[in-house]
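Annex B. Sample input.
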Amino acid sequence: MNPVEQHILNQKEPFQSLMLYVRSVIKRTLPEVNEKLSYKIPFYNLAKRPMIYLNVLKGTEFLDVAFAQGFLLQENFPELKDYKNRKNVRSIQIKSIEQLDEQQFVKLLLEASELIKVSKSAWHP
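Annex B, continued. Sample output.
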């Protein structure tokens, strides 16, 4: 079992199920993505650049699915929120599997992957 799988399996419900579901959509949509544990949370890197990370923030009741260059995606994907005034990162907060529109999430993943591929840096365009 890799460190990301171990981290996810150590999560309490509903976070464990949410993370497993989001992870499966990410890996199915972007098979070239590299999954690794960084800063004690799952990161999904593309072209050696961080693209997405999954985090359960203390005191919240949602899974934060954060996009490194999310601010560039906000116009086409208004579901991305500026949570905690992060400079470039935008995220989707998910409380249940039913809440996530998988088709829209796949479109978001594909557009985010195109951005990362042409960027000079992961955190800045």
